[in-house]
Specification:
The protein is built from ten helices and 23 strands. The protein is an alpha+beta fold. The protein has two domains: 242 residues, no CATH class; 242 residues, Roll (C8orf32 fold), CATH 3.10.620. A 14-stranded antiparallel beta sheet has the order 8-7-6-5-4-3-2-1-14-13-12-11-10-9. Strands 15, 19, 20, 21 and 22 form a five-stranded antiparallel beta sheet that branches. The chain has a four-stranded antiparallel beta sheet with strand order 17-18-16-23, with no helix packed on it. Strand 4 and strand 5 form a beta hairpin. Helix 5 packs across helix 8, helix 6 runs antiparallel to helix 8 and helix 7 crosses helix 8.
Length: 492
């Protein structure tokens, strides 16, 4: 499972809220640091033409996973009037092997015509613009209006094309401080912005702004990693990067070694959030959480078996289940090649309990190259390339389930591994759950393909969704935010 896609989205959001106050035709360059290592760059460009203001944010970061470099790029562009009224937007994400693009046009009535383009196909839809939401120019004007008076506080609703959501933000202006900017020290005003990220709680960031409202440094912690963006010369921003190995940052230590978690009927975990941590562990059909008086969380994981007697395709009216059979830009269950794979895997069976297990086994064998070089690929990309890590197994399994009418979601969390790159513990992971016979049943084609057996009580779910990169925020923010103090294993 990768965190690099989440980090790139988060950096794009931080660039959005903390970008420099540019002139009418100006580009600013920033170096991106993680854990003190330079891993990439960001650029912010503002162009004014007649009554239109176009603002573009570009981010490129490269990290290492077990010595394998992974580069992820994102570009977000907003088009607004000089008064900050939204006119249109575009987001291009290069997370996997091909770029995924979403664009939108906002009309005078507040309706947005959205076009998603990926892997040679386009999908269009119409949504309503979130009331009161602003983009880059609207936020710039709001910032100029409130100024830098110490103690000033205000709120904003920020629309991000990258996650197609409006995010609540609270801004608080602090005092001036001496700030080190790659060797030069300036007295800058500290501005704290707190984003209410869906599924991930509060993510605060601190920006340092000069008297001309130009942000020269922004710092935050994302996925347990310290991230800094510092304004600098173009040559340094675009220059060579350091090597940051991510694997060690994706693990939660286990207090004991788990012997064959696949043979356990249930496992109970006592989890201790770190001071100030803001994350949740959901109760699902496969796990139950209990908040203890001392602040710890008791989590009982007992995977359910696929009940017999279900029907496929799903024909009920539950809105969440109906959504879970629809194609999305990462789960292209209506694509001809995915439908063909699903039919091949399912064969003639009409029993969804058997069908999901056959799909899990099919995907376990179908992906031939268990590559860590893929940032995050869609199901259609995986169907063609037959490569990827756990997230690619998960999206293809979910899309194939949806292709035969079985509701399915991508689950993100942590799972126990006895050894990976010299580490033992609970690593960031992705798998699938399918709705069968009134229960959400866990499927893990990645583990099944490695001989582990599939989904078991060694899995702790942190969030579910439709495979969108934003679904990974909760998992990413939770890593590094808790410890596991005790584990009890039950075997029948």
């Amino acid at each position: 499972m990768t965190k690099v896609n989440v980090l790139t989205i988060a950096i794009t959001l931080l660039l959005f809220i903390g970008g420099p106050a540019l002139g009418e035709e100006e580009t600013e360059y920033l170096a991106v640091f993680m854990q003190g290592k330079k891993v990439g760059h960001a650029t912010l460009t503002r162009r004014v033409e007649s009554d239109r203001v176009t603002t573009s944010e570009d981010v490129s970061i490269t990290i290492s996973r077990v010595g394998i470099p992974v580069t992820v790029k994102m570009t977000e562009t907003s088009i607004e009037t000089k008064a900050g009224k939204p006119l249109g937007f575009e987001s291009v994400q290069l997370l996997g092997m091909m770029a995924m693009k979403v664009s939108g046009k906002v009309d005078d009535a507040g309706l947005v015509e959205v076009t998603n383009s990926s892997f040679g196909a386009q999908q269009t839809s119409t949504v309503t613009w979130p009331e009161g939401a602003v983009m880059a120019e609207g936020l710039r004007l709001l910032t100029l209006k409130h100024g830098l008076e110490a103690g000033s506080e205000y709120s904003a609703k920020l629309f991000s094309a990258g996650i197609m959501q409006a995010i609540e933000a609270k801004v608080s202006v602090g005092q001036k401080k001496d700030v080190d900017l790659l060797g030069r020290v300036l007295k800058l005003t500290e501005v704290t912005t707190t984003l209410a990220m869906p599924g991930a709680g509060q993510i605060p960031s601190v920006s340092y702004v000069d008297d001309d409202m130009k942000t020269l440094k922004t710092s935050t912690a994302v996925a347990g990693i310290e991230v800094d963006m510092i304004a600098c010369a173009k040559e340094f921003a675009l220059g060579d990067n350091d090597v940051l190995e991510m694997i060690g940052m994706m693990f939660v230590n286990s207090p004991v070694s788990l012997d064959d978690p696949g043979s356990a009927s249930a496992i109970t975990y006592w989890i201790r959030p770190k001071p100030g941590a803001d994350f949740t562990i959901p109760t699902t059909d496969n796990q139950t959480t209990t908040q203890l008086p001392d602040g710890a969380i008791k989590l009982a994981v007992e995977p359910v078996a696929a009940p017999s007697g279900g029907r496929m395709p799903y024909e009920g009216n539950d809105p969440a289940l109906r959504e879970a059979v629809e194609p999305t830009r990462f789960l292209q269950s209506d694509r001809e090649e995915i439908v063909a794979l699903a039919r091949k895997a399912v064969g003639r069976t009409k029993d969804p309990a058997k069908a999901v297990k056959q799909i899990e086994a099919f995907v376990a064998d179908y992906i031939e190259d268990r590559s860590l070089s893929v940032g995050y690929a869609s199901a259609a990309e995986v169907a063609e390339s037959r490569q990827g890590d756990c997230s690619e197994f998960a999206v293809l399994t979910a899309a194939m389930c949806r292709a035969v009418g079985i509701p399915a979601q991508v689950v993100v969390g942590v799972a126990y591994v006895a050894e990976f790159a010299g580490r033992e513990g609970f690593g960031g992971h992705a798998w699938t759950q399918a709705y069968v016979g009134g229960k959400w049943v866990g499927l893990d084609a990645a583990f099944k393909g490695s001989g582990r057996g599939g989904h078991d009580a060694g899995h702790i779910a942190l969030a579910t969704g439709n495979g969108e990169p934003s679904d990974f925020f909760n998992m990413a923010s939770a890593l590094g935010a808790f410890t596991i103090e005790r584990i009890d294993v039950q075997r029948d």
